[in-house]
Structures
1.
Amino acid sequence: MESIYYSLVNIVGEEYVSNQKEELFIYSQDSGMMDPHEPNFVVLPKSTEEVEKIVKLSNIEKIPIVVAGGALSLSGLTIPHQGGIILDLIRMDKVLEVNDNSRYAIIEAGVTTGKLKAYLERNHPELRFSMPDAPPAATVVGNIVIHGQGRLSQQYGFNSDMVTGLEVVLPNGEVCKIGSGSVSPYWFAIAPLPNLAGLFLGWYGTTGIITQLGIKLYPKKKLRDVEVFLVEEPKLVPDVVQRVTFTEMPEDIFIGAQPYPPAYKDLIMIGICITGDTEEELEFKRKLIWDALRPHIDSKEGGFMVMTPEIKQELLEIPSSSTTRFADVLKGGGFEYCGPIIPVEKFPEAYKKLLEISSKYSLTYGSIGRVIGRSHCMMFTFGYPFNRADSKNIEITKRALYDANVASLEIGGVPWKPEVPAQKLIMEKMDKNTLKLMQSMKNFLDPNRIMNPGNWEV
Amino acid sequence: MSDYATQIHRCFRCGYCKFPSNFIDFNCPSYKRFKFESYSTGGRLWLLWAWLRNEIEWSEHLSEILFSCVTCRNCVEFCPMKFKEDIVDWIVSIRSVMVEQGKVLPKVSEFLNNIYRDGNPWGFPRNKRDAWVNNKDRYSTNDEYLFFVGCVGSYEPRGQEMAKSFMKLLDTANQSYGILGTDEECDGNEAYMLGEKGLFKELAQKNIEKFEKYKVKKIVTLSPHSFNIMKNKYSGLKNIEIVHYTQLLHDMIQNQKISFSTRKTKVTYHDPCYLGRYNGVYEIPREILENIPGVDLVEMPRNRENSFCCGGGSGNFVYDLLGRSEDSPSIIRVREAYETGAEFLIVTCPSCKMMLDDAIKKEGLEKELFVKDLSEFLLATMKQGIINMGSNI
């Protein structure tokens, strides 16, 4: 291990390699509930060239590599289950290019969602990207790699659908460009080439290391507003979503439920965000949405919530810090969720399961989901705060999450950014030939099995 | 268990504390400098919780991580959680545990020992504390203000320039004041922030006794560190008004006791953490600058509550744990100031002045950007020919 340490020092410099127990401890875990496992080294490369050299070294030494951005998946996707090298790409933090006409940006893998937001606001105020509600320390690439969703996902799909190009360090250390950037200086699209981006999205770093990303940008309207439609009956939710998405007016649709404060108990909140350049445009969109929901209002099955300016402001905040505050509900510093992607029509079943599991384990809960595409699917949340200082509470919450993963698959959904046990559940249910294809791809790309081992292990 | 031990695990390590409000860059000085998660506030709190639970052992590296926090309060400002106000107190409390157990870095230990032995962090002789000033009368009960100079103002040449400039402005305004000279003790802000609460109490008590002995009614401090600790942590000063020198200057200008000539130049202003985030004094220095005819005040992208610390807090203006890198906070800050196109980087804290002045030299910007304390800048402005402009402040 000593020779590996000095090799790493030669690549990135002494200041950016640590084998001290403090760094090994911190990078052995994330804020979720997966058991920790220490790496042997934490390394902070500054460039693709350095990543390339580290990967080549890892192949020689047969030592695992796990890439971390903000390490905020909560599901342990950056925990080095078999030790090895953690690559924290936070020093690769440049916004390399913004193309105003073709509306894309090229960024390095360590650029945080917060930084890209700030960069665009300062330099290209007419453009935005689909910012997730993860804390601003989450990296854009990290969010893409896990098929994250953001504020524009209702309009344009998963954030990983917004990829226009990649630079990837393959497991053998070769650097490869994906998309139009492989034949042109312009990173405008993956098409019309074979979609090789799929070899790296959703694989959690088991097939290569994304070092640069091309990402779509979208027009940023001057005004935003939010309305919240309330229903008590979960079975109404799919219809509400159908009606609202049919108007094609919303920017974002999120669906929330929580037992506290008591006034919110048994209410399902459907947040509908709209944008526009003028008040007239907003009013026009508001009217279409109200008209679409008129039958539910007239039947008194649902209605729009009267909101204080403070509540509106909180709902419009990007990213939503209230999502993060959920971790302090029990004053325990922990928050974990199972967030399956489900068909929207399965919302009532998912909601029922949420209540059943919470009741079974006597846990409080929070659920905040997001419609993806024009009702093509949605992310549903079985969210549980937990107390990091209470091992019994942690154990119970782990069991609830396991049940939530099982329930998600039972109702026809697929757990999103699944932790290793949930990955196993998914693979047990997966078409055998699909599984075989996954295994073949991994064997082909990473014959030495050095890339984030433990994840997607067929 | 004491409060911090039962609360510290509440940090989720979300990372909001790394940023300013607009996320423009990392704003936690130690995280920005080292980039390892362990140097972020969240990483630090998780490590300390692990140490308190005996999950990891103490090491010099752990101590270095703990003491590299400059207590700039960025984390308090931007943490989204309800416990945010307690974060620095947790850090300070755990430092106290390490100090009690003798588990601190040699540099920190030397810093504290020097204060204990000599009343200043460098270990200069006590009887030289007033060597910078000639024939200045000591404070007497007839004086309106006690001018508390502090350690940097007393011993460090750049701090001394500040103190002298401020005193000239006081003299110009016929403001009565006096200093304690060799009777002055270290203010104790750094001792407190480093967790040496016993030493802090002793220093505070000695200063309070002097204030009582001289029947002090008003204190004006040169350093925001002194201002902060006296205002917020000295118990028993209820009947004494504490102001920072910028506040007194503001009053003097308002009352037309000093006025300026026109000076065409561009300046930018660096908010000291102990004046800004700790005490909410953001606008007064700006109002002074904006009211000097010809002065164009341009803001750095990170200003006011978003300001990026110079890296000098918690004793780092002496031992500089965050130094020796192009990512050192002071280096980054002077680059940011330079990019505004300003000719002068105006400061209101002697520690900031030291840190940023050193950084300008390291960056080779000595001929393009000048660090000046507000008093020095005002004095130079007056020297060009006083025209009684009155004041719009």
2.
Amino acid sequence: MIARRFSPFTRIAVVAVLLIGLSGCGINKIPSLDEQVKAKWSEVLNQYQRRADLIPNLVETVKGYAHQEEKVLTEVTAARAKATQMQIPADVLSNPNAFHQFEQNQTELGGALARLLAVSEKYPDLKSNQNFLALQSQLEGTENRIAVARRDYILAVQNYNTALRTIPDRWTAAWFYPDLKVRETFTISEQAQQVPQVKF
Amino acid sequence: MRSPVMFPLPPGEGSLIRHRCGNSSAGISSTSAQDTLGEGAATRTCGDKCAALRFDIREAEPSPSVSRGWREAIWRSAHAASTAIRVTLSRREREQKESRTGPLTRYARAASLALLLLLAVAMPAYASEPSFPALTGRVVDGAGVLSESTKSQLTDALKKHEDATGDQVVVVTLDSLQGYTIEDFGYQLGRHWGIGQKGKDNGVLLIVAPSEHKVRIEVGYGLEGTLTDAASRTIIESDILPNFRSDNYDAGVIAGTASILTALGGAGASALSNVPRSERPIRIKDYRSHSRNDVSDVHFLLVMLPFFINIAAFIFLVGYRIRQIPKDKRHPYNLIWGGGTSTSGGLSSSGFSGGGGSFGGGGASGSW
């Protein structure tokens, strides 16, 4: 009989090990990490959209004072169009090409914006314009929010990818969620590493 | 003959460990200074054990995308674990010679290898973060630049505001930003403290870093529409920075807080309006900047300590309880819960704590 062969301690130890093993194997963990990644990605998209929404207003304001800076203004408008018109495929998070295209577009827009704000420094009237100051601080705040959203996304992806690639969760994933793939994460491109050139 | 594996150790550790593995008569030769149990440079035979160790340590090596902070931490843990294994093995082997307890040795090896694996798996939880000051009240004067009367007036006004609106506003001065930008530090501090109500995220931080000459208004998600980036910037430019430029931190913080409370539209601002603007000249302390390596060392210990204490306490508790309970009453239920005295009551609070709000980088910064 089992009761004779194993003491209560042995039995409770076996049950405890099984319970810990079940909760530790990530049967709920992997889907919730996946959802976290999706939520953080939505936040990233949301903040990029917020930046794109601020740009037309900024371009109009700058145009009023510095219409001769046509090249920079066109650049910003073109970069914004490229970034917002990109069709983002549904599997963008596990599709390296689409993901890097998205990131490339947003980086270009960021660079063009930085150049626009840099040339604005040349126009004292523009700099003291209340509308411009408000837009400028909103843009700064949005860039900061983008940085935070990206950081949160990177952390979420790190947790998710780690779970997907380390034991024991990788066994659970392979067994129960074979369609889940490792997610892409942001890299700092060479262009973003270069400080924008300011020429006077 | 396989090639020897060299482990780069974190800087500051003078000792070098070299593991050599052969095919038939593999050996671990150790020149570690920590191996006090060994007689001189101990050389022991090992077979698959050494290969397993190599495997584990290779597994523990993080991918290149991993940040440097916990790469170092992993090396440290791998180093500590391998030392522990070697120490255990040497002790076990001596015991084995004396009393021939073969299976025990194998268990010890398995347990220490499992511990190493566990450490490697548990490591990603340790990410590099700044070390945050404790939330001691609504005004946390870590840099020591505010006068007592300023602190008490701010505390009263902020409390009044929270009672009226539920918004949590906290003023914090920092000794150092620890190498982070104030934007980077600010939102993490806000999240760490959980300023604002959970779900509403209605918290605001006024952060002053005198040694870096930076100031920031960090606005929680829920208040970004009320205290906009542009409004925050105006408050910093017109109320705070002019006072800070003349080294009058009290006046700057009071004027800034009053404007924040006014923008948030609650009570409390009136409590600050009749405060004399310059109370005393401020002496600027000789700030020393911390090096981030020192911080991460302490951090690593702090992160790992509760983990080890928990394990030790659990083992001790279970062992103690087993001995306490008479043999015929040793039921599993009694083991954990039965007959013990329960401790209750949390940490004593200072009457203020964060409500669990979150931050997303809203607000504005300035420097002087």
